[in-house]
Amino acid sequence: xxxxNTASCQPDACHLFVCRWALExxxxxEADGLVEVSExxxxxxxxxxxxxxxxxxxxNEEGKAxxxxxxxxxxxxxxxxxxxxxYLNKLRRECSLAELMDxxxxxxxxxxxxxxxxxxxxxxxxxxxxxxxxxxxxMKNDFKKMEDEMDCLSANMAAITEFSACISGxxxxxxxxxxxxxGVHTLLRKLQFxxxxxxxxxxxxxxxxxxxxxxxxxxxxxxxxxxxxxxxxKGIQDDCHAIMDKLAQELRQxxxxxxxxxxxxAQCVELLLQLDEPAEELCDKFLSHARSRLESDLxxxxxxxxxxxxxxxxxxxxxxxxxxxVSSLCLVIASYQELFINHAQMANGKLHAFVDDLAARYFSLxxxxxxxxxxxxxxxxxxxxxxxxxRRLQAVAKLLPGSPVPNKGIEIVIRAATERVKQYLAxxxxxxxxxxxxxxxxxxxxxxxxxxxxxxxxxLSSLSASILNQIKSVLASVHLFTAKDITFSNKPYFKGEFCxxxxxxxxxxxxxKFVCQSSRQFCESAGDKGGSTPPVLLLxxxxxxxxxxxxxxxxxxxxxxxQFLVQHHSPVTxxxxxCEEAREAAQKLLNHYVKVQGLIISQMLRKSVExxxxxxxxxxxxxxxxxKRVVEDTTSIxxxxxxxxxxxxxxxxxxxxxxxxxxVYSSSRQQARYAASYTPSAPMDTNLLSNIHKLFSERxxxxxxxxxxxxxxxxxxxxxxxxxxxxxxxxRTFGRYGLQQIQVDCxxxxxxxxxxxxDENLVHFLLDEIVCSSAHRCLDPAPMEQSVxxxxxxxx
Amino acid sequence: xxxxxxxxxxxEFQARALTAQTAETDAIRFLVGTQSLKFDNQIHIIDFDDxxxxxxxxxxxxxxxxxxxxxxxxxxxxxxTTCYNKTSNSRVVSCAAVWRMPTDWETxxxxxxxxxxxxxxxxxxxxxxxxxxxxxxxxVLWEPMGDGKRVISxxxxxxxxxxxxxxxxxxxxxxxxTLEGKGQLKFNAxxxxxxxxxxxxxxxxxxxxxxxxxxxxxxxxxxxNAHGQLVRDLDFNPNRQYYMASCGDDCKVKxxxxxxxxxxxxxxxxxxxxxxxxxxxxxxxxxx
Lengths: 796, 288
Hints:
The complex is a heterodimer.
Chain A: H1 16-38, H2 43-57, H3 65-71, H4 84-94, H5 97-207, H6 210-226, H7 231-257, H8 262-274, H9 279-304, H10 314-339, H11 344-372, H12 379-399, H13 405-444, H14 449-454, H15 456-479, H16 492-528, H17 535-564, H18 575-610, H19 625-644, H20 660-678, H21 683-696, H22 710-730, H23 736-753, H24 760-776, H25 786-795
Helix pairs in contact in A: 1-2, 1-5, 5-6, 5-7, 6-7, 7-8, 8-9, 8-10, 9-10, 9-11, 10-11, 10-12, 11-13, 12-13, 13-15, 13-16, 15-17, 16-17, 16-18, 17-18, 18-19, 18-22, 19-22, 19-23, 20-24, 22-24, 23-24, 23-25
Chain B: E1 14-20, E2 28-35, E3 41-49, E4 54-62, E5 66-72, E6 79-88, E7 91-100, H1 105-111, H2 115-118, E8 121-122, E9 124-128, E10 137-142, E11 150-155, E12 158-165, E13 170-178, E14 189-192, E15 200-205, E16 208-213, E17 218-223, E18 231-236, E19 243-248, E20 253-257, E21 266-268
Parallel strand pairs in B: 4-8
Antiparallel strand pairs in B: 1-2, 2-3, 3-4, 5-6, 6-7, 7-9, 10-11, 11-12, 12-13, 14-15, 15-16, 16-17, 18-19, 19-20, 20-21
Keywords (chain A): Coiled coil, Endosome, Golgi apparatus, Lipid transport, Protein transport, Transport
Organism (chain A): Scophthalmus maximus
Subunit structure (chain A): Component of the Golgi-associated retrograde protein (GARP) complex. Component of the endosome-associated retrograde protein (EARP) complex.
């Protein structure tokens, strides 16, 4: 505290403390005032004043780093390290005279203003100090007055204490008496309660207010036990015991009757527990009662399982099961857990066994009911029922964590789903077979064969469309199992295995396989057993399978994969395998078709050759009717095939196929051969010639596989027919006119059949062989003139 | 034999009839009958020497007509039957007959091998297996492993059981069975079963296979639609009494268990042409 700071202050020692306090007060006020002033003043000045104040209060350490840096500069006129010498030297060195002059003027101005500021400050300080001194003087007077009053107050307090002690002393005895009396009163009330207890309990018993009775008894029980050595209390205790026994008896009776609701029952158990009944026994009893009630629910359910048509809908069944059985089961579990919470260890085991047992029976009922559900009409009912079933089981899962019940429920749902898929497969299969029967009927309706064939195309498209629609609707039905709002759809089974193995493999893939297999069966069984399958159906199925191979299969599978977002964890049947299978089936069917049609025509030809006496026949005047029939049938087959299969490629025709090649075969080569066979001297030459001829002609594979086009199919049929003709001719002996008739017939066939086949040379070759063979088997081989043959054929 | 080159024997004429001579136990011998409308038909006796892998042949003349079926007696190696077509007066008649080979055909061939082709010896006719009522024999079957006294001929829709007497020079019909039904039925082929004391016969007509009991001459089983087309031949398994093979125009070989004729035991579809002949014993041959 330096006097230099407060220039005019001469404080006396006795008031040093007060002065200091007052000064501080003043200084604070001044600092505040300065802050106000400095808002429109020079900030550097303000800082300086602050610095002085800080110096006084020892606040050096609070200075900003910026200021410290600034203050290190000896040329800073406001810094603490200001060196006037240095500053002057610097000015003198750096500035011109004019600048020095300006600087000087400026500095003088600043000094003047500083001086005036300081004067103002000192003046103000002085004023305030004076007023502070006044205040202190005034306070000194006031304190003295206050001291007197305090003395008075302490005197009064002492008097009050004295009085109070006196009163307490007087009242001491009475207070002890009151306390004692109130204790006695309480005791008496308690005793009264005890004495009244039997009556009260009886009354409760009468009113069946068991809870109140037990409550009362419990309160009295300890006391009675404690004082049971006193005869009077003993009496009360005995009475109470008797009553309570009776009560317990009644409770047990009520418990046994089982007619009461679950809530009543729970209450009974609670009271009995409070009466110290053994918990384990109670558990058993409680559960057995619950069991009898639940079993009656189950019986009710069982009665609902009836043969399919009369039974209520599966959803109603499940609803009933949920509402009756599952909800009472939940109630039982909840109340049981609440009741026996103190005996959790023992009670839980019993509860689990109980729930498992009953749930197993419930599940078996549900499963039986679901198995009854055979109609595949509306899947949504079943799915919703299963959803309800599954959802309600979640409540059990929540109540009984770790119970296997929900898992078993899921298993049931899964089984039901797989069963459903199987049923859908069966439904699809039967639908397919039914459609085939329809097609068959449509084909069998009495119409001309040509007219019948004309509907084949429509039948095919309607058949494949209806199958596709059916598949789509089945997929939509099955898709319900994985719908988002169904609780079990997010189980891993329904996300993965159900989609890939269930739907894709066992439904879609199996159906496609079934289509192929059933088609193939048409080839295997029908062919030998009299050909019960109409050939058009074979053709139609073949086209169907081929369409499957080219597009339908991949379409269906893509559809399935998209709908079910199938993620293949396990290997699945690839599209190519199915396509191959379908193609195989198509090929087999088509081959079979060719065979069947070939056989039909063969049969005609064979009968016609076998039943005729070729030795004694008249000179040919006409083409035999059977040949016309063959051509007619071939034409209608051609129309039939043309409706379902594309034309296909054939070798280029010669300009006049029906005549030119035939004349070649008939006149030149044939004549040469006859000539050879006439000469008796060289029988070997005939064989040699025909053998050499065979070496150079292509080997004809009669029953070879055909391609998927009309020409190939027709070629196959004609090959089979003509080959039969040839073989039959070889088994017969001909007279001259017999041979000529064959010539006429062959020419006729030649005229009409070449247009159906891929390579007309094939027909030429086979017909050539036929005429050759009949010439060989002829007793008098004198061929007919080519021109005559032509005339006859053109006339016929 | 598998290692050796195949042995090929060529005939001048076309031939459809071939049989093994079962009475000949010393050599492997086949009989082949030819078919020619214009020349005298022949029976070729072909001996196969399996040690040297060569064949010897002898030719006998069969002047009666072209041979459609041939059968060798199981008891007498000189006796054989043929079914042949006789052409006379511009009519073709199918006949059946029992023949005896000339006794010296072997010696003759050995003495002058060059002559055989030019001057073949002629078969000696023992008896005809025809009577006025039954014509058109399709085939003649010897009783398998019998004493050469009983043959069956299949003619049109009749099966005739003949007893041969007096060194086979006389034949009498002892019993007949007739195929009855709509239309003109006609036996294609038949086989005498070597099992059950040779009391069973199997025949084929059209697409049907029938079994007959020879003691009562009545039908014992019938396989309707055994093949899609005509059944051409059938045979029994020599080792397994109930098994039978059949073949036909549908290019299939089927194996049957005659106790259950609903379905074939097995079906082969390896051939690409008509099957005219098949043989039991695991060996089936295709004759074309």
